[in-house]
Each structure stands twice: as C-alpha cells, then as structure tokens.
Amino acid sequence: MPRVLTESDVADFRERLCEAAERLFAGKGPEAVTMRQLAAELGVSPMTPYRYFKDKDDILAAVRTMGFDRFAEALETAYATEGDARARGAAVGEAYVTFAFEHPQTYKLMFDMYQPDEDAYPELKRAAQRARATMSDYVKALVESGHLAGDPERIGEMFWASTHGCIVLEMTGKLPPGGARKLIGEVNSAISRGLRPQA
User: Which of 81, 106, 110 is nearest to 93 (CA)?
Assistant: First the structure.
C-alpha cells in the first residue's frame, strides 16, 4: 500500500519533477521528452509522475508557470526602482535581458514553439499575463510622461519583439556574446525616436 503523501511531499516532488523537466525539455525539446525519461531522471517508476501530473503537457505548463512568475517578479522589481519613466523603463529592459541570459533554459521553454493551450491551464495564463502587464506598464508611463506617443500596448509589443528577437539570435549563436544587449539598445533607440511626440 503506497504511503499517504503530505502536501509538503507533493509540493517537493512536483518541484523536483519540474526542475528535471526544465533541463530535459530545454536540452532535447518538449516533443522529444517522454514521461518515462522524466521518471528515470528522478529515479522513480515510470508511473510515479502520473500521481502528480496528468501528462507531459501538464508538467510543461507547470514549468512555464513557474518561469513566467519568476520573470514577472524580476520585471516588477525593476519597475519599482526609483527614477523617472525613462529610468524605470530602462531598468525593466535590463531586467528582461538579464533574466533571459541568467535563466536560458527557463526562457527558452517560456517561448518555445511547442505550447500547450493556455486556456486549459489557468495558472499558466495568469502568470503569462502578469509578465506581459509589466512589459506594457512601463510604456504607459513613457506615454503619459510625454516621452512616447501611441498605443502603449502596441509599443510594448514592438519593444518586446525586438528584445526577444535579439536575445534568440544570441542564444542561437547568430550574434556574438554581448551582441544582443548592443543590438537591443540600438533597435530600441530607433523605435523610441520614431515614436516621439511630434512638435
């Protein structure tokens, strides 16, 4: 008869399984990883993961949820720094790049092409929306302070797309080490110049 698991036991195993999944998913791609491989990584029976997660997509959603929450926390902390709208915006941008390169496996999984349906995972949807909110909040402050003109949501998407693209280029070896930060600065400056209020 299997022992009764406490909430602490469940939380601990789920966390260890998510850590193992993050390593394997990032290294091989989510589609190439099986539940059996995840179980072997932790030295448990092939059926054990099913006591904690419905399937692989359920694990992937949990890994992404934790990643987006950590990412959002880093961005929120940066946004809360002292200074004007431009300084806070720069802090958010720096926090974004720092998180991506300090946690490359997490970052790759957050934005991997293999994505489960977020509507089926409310916690993942919440965490992703939390991160996205900070990526547009700092732009709202820039628009309100008169540094930029336009729709804050759309401008935030422009900065997000350029930042993400530069990071991926460096992560895949298409830019030299440190090249993403340099290019992000140049691209974002160009975007900002084009979005300044007309005199």
Answer: 81
